[in-house]
Amino acid sequence: MKSKSDLRKELRRVRKDHVAAQPAAIKALLFNRPPAPLLDLLAENATIALYPAIGSEAPTSSYAKFFLERGHVIALPRFADENAQMEFAAFQDPFDKSDLVPGPFGLEQPDASLPVIEPDVLFVPLIGCTAKGDRLGQGGGHYDRWFAAHTGKTKVGLAWDVQVVEGLPIEAHDQQLDFIVTPTRLYGPFA
Ligand SMILES: Nc1nc2c(c(=O)[nH]1)N(C=O)[C@@H](CNc1ccc(C(=O)N[C@@H](CCC(=O)O)C(=O)O)cc1)CN2
Ligand SMILES: Nc1ncnc2c1ncn2[C@@H]1O[C@H](COP(=O)(O)OP(=O)(O)OP(=O)(O)O)[C@@H](O)[C@H]1O
Asked: What GO MF annotations does this protein's record show (predicted)?
């Protein structure tokens, strides 16, 4: 089996080419709102974590607006610096992003003055995944460590269909997803 780092390279390229090939008018319709069967399983008062999508990652801005209008508290990852643990704080203005500040890794994040919050449901970025819920991320281990420290959370991967692969090299610390949403499919729950 290929190494995680070779797979990251290959799948980043596949993802980039796939997204570049999508007509803008089609792309605008994708990841517009979560699939109804998934939504039915999310508590109305759940705090929902999203991520500030960059590059060719599955976009999250429509979900942010949708969940805000549905009354959920929304959270985004925050890092005190490059070496700090990932934590979450509220994302209060998904329409204008006026409350975000630049953070490490080239990502926008909530301001340091906001309290840490613990989301119940986390939508996570990924480079690759399998139809069984295995996940390959950027390699920082940020989500793996957060999930190890906060058990019982609902973990939902957002992916383009080309990111769902047959198999991934899995290590003991790798955390399984509960669901994966692609533009054409909802995978899970896997348990
Ligand atoms: N949009 C987004 N937000 C996220 C993540 C992510 O993957 N995507 N993370 C997931 O854990 C956390 C941030 N962790 C990160 C860890 C490593 C790299 C990283 O190594 N980036 C490469 C760029 C790779 C490329 O552009 O091809 C780099 O800086 O070299 C980025 C984010 C939380 N927020
Ligand atoms: N629970 C944990 N405790 C300590 N170290 C961990 C834990 N989970 C992951 N790590 C470390 O993090 C590093 C990266 O792990 P991995 O390659 O699986 O990241 P990833 O899941 O692709 O990244 P990310 O979650 O940031 O998107 C590894 O060196 C691993 O040892």
From this structure: 5-formyltetrahydrofolate cyclo-ligase activity; ATP binding; metal ion binding
Q: What is the pLDDT of residues 83-135, one digit of tens each?
A: 999 999 999 999 999 999 999 999 999 999 999 999 999 999 999 999 999 99
Q: How far is the CA of 15 from the centre of ligand 2 (A)?
A: 21
The CATH class for the domain spanning 4-187 reads alpha beta
The Cα-based distances of 88 to 26, 50, 81, 118 in angstroms read: 31, 10, 14, 7
Could you tell me which of 96, 91, 97, 83 has the C-alpha nearest to residue 110?
Answer: 91
Task: Say what the pTM is.
Answer: 0.96
- Residue 140 counted as an annotated binding residue: yes
Residue nearest to atom 10 of ligand 2 (CA): 141
In Å, how far from its chain's centre is CA 65?
Answer: 15
Percentage of the chain exceeding pLDDT 70: 100
Q: How far is the CA of 174 from the centre of ligand 1 (A)?
A: 16
Cβ(8) – ligand 1 distance below 6 Å: no
